[in-house]
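I wish you would study the pair of lines that follows with an eye to the fold:

===
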Amino acid sequence: MSTVRIEFPDTAFPPQEIPLRGCLPLHLSVQNSPLLFGCRSGLCGTCLIEVEAAADAVEPPADDEREALEIYAPGNPRARLACQLVPLGALRVRKIESV
């Protein structure tokens, strides 16, 4: 099984290896990451993050996620909802507060 590395810069959390295309809420928790997951359906904004990655390291956001990002992080091209993110390569993520 292929995995991808998720790093959490500027935190004490070590990088995590999760399955390629893995669902972040299934593999990340408060014990192994700084990310919090609320509704897990892309509506609440609890898991709002900034992603540093190569352009092909994540699938582009679906229309529903794009609409939510316009509300929670307008004008931030690196903002994503972790619960909706599909990792295809190594990522560096930072939790951000919604507007």
The chain has one domain: 3-95.
